[in-house]
Amino acid sequence: MQCLEFLRTHLIEGFLPLQTSFEAMKHFTCNFRDVEQCALENNILPLRYKRNQKTFSTQDQYTLFKAKVLIVGCGGLGGFVSEMLARIGVGELILCDGDVFEEHNLNRQNFSSIKTLGRNKAEVLKEKLEEINPALHVKTKTTFLRLPEERELLEKVDVIVDALDNPNLKCLLALCAQAINKPFVHAAIGGYYSQFATQTTLEHLYAQEGDGIETQLGNPSFTVCFAASIQSVEVVKLLLKKPHLTHFLMGDLWEYEMTHLSLR
Fold first, then answer.
1. Which of 60, 73, 134, 156 is least surrounded by CB atoms within 10 angstroms?
2. Residues 34, 157 within the same domain
3. What pTM value is reported for the model?
4. Same-domain pairing of 140 and 13
5. For the chain, what is the largest distance between any 2 Cα atoms, rounded to a whole number of angstroms?
6. What is the pLDDT of residues 98-112, one digit of tens each?
7. Which SUPFAM superfamilies does the entry mention (predicted)?
């Protein structure tokens, strides 16, 4: 019996359950990702994506499965963006961060806990994300990204996510992405406020060098989660070739306002 025939005869209400995927791995000596690929390319939706179905088609889900996203920074923004993309079904993530979890990260950074203090952020995220989505392929870079020297890493992906906390590095990452024409999704937060941009450079946002505004306003967890959600939506829109941000977007969670600003 071929794998596809096996999957089709073991569906639940037309969906592929985890148990069938695990059984197929044993029968056909393949990995979980191979099973999911076989299903999606034949218009079979895994059961865990059932609640995505009214938003995304099975073909959309397959497009996400084939996508590769680079997340630069695995702290506040990067931790939540990576989880949302893993749960939505993005198939491959490259996580880049040379930092370790510290005690002051516990107020906001996803997967930071007493047990993970002192461990590399990218490695912790890899472990947790692969538990959430066994079809996900995660690569880690456990040193800080050096640009432009390591620009080849940017060339290997479909979308680049800016989850950095240093304005100078954010601007440099945006410039490098533009230079190779790679989709780029930016966010930054401070206090109740956040800012977003897609497919643009950032030097006009950071006219003065120095630390980000979060050093003055703080990094509350709810603003981080909000900003990561916007970034995740933008990544998905880019991967699915849907309309995305064309202006800077400013978020104000104190007044519950969203404001569009001209890119220039």
1. 156
2. no
3. 0.95
4. no
5. 65
6. 999 999 999 999 999
7. Activating enzymes of the ubiquitin-like proteins
Confidence of residue 263 (pLDDT cuts 50, 70, 90): low
Q: Is 242 found in the same domain as 143?
A: yes
The domain containing residue 215 runs over which residues?
A: 67-261
If asked whether residues 230 and 194 sit together in one domain, one would say: yes
Question: What is the pLDDT at residue 184?
Answer: 97
Shared domain for 219 and 255, answered yes or no, is yes
Same domain, 45 and 164: no
Compute the mean pLDDT over every residue in the chain, rounded to the nearest whole number.
Answer: 95
- The pair of structure tokens assigned to 233 is 């939506």
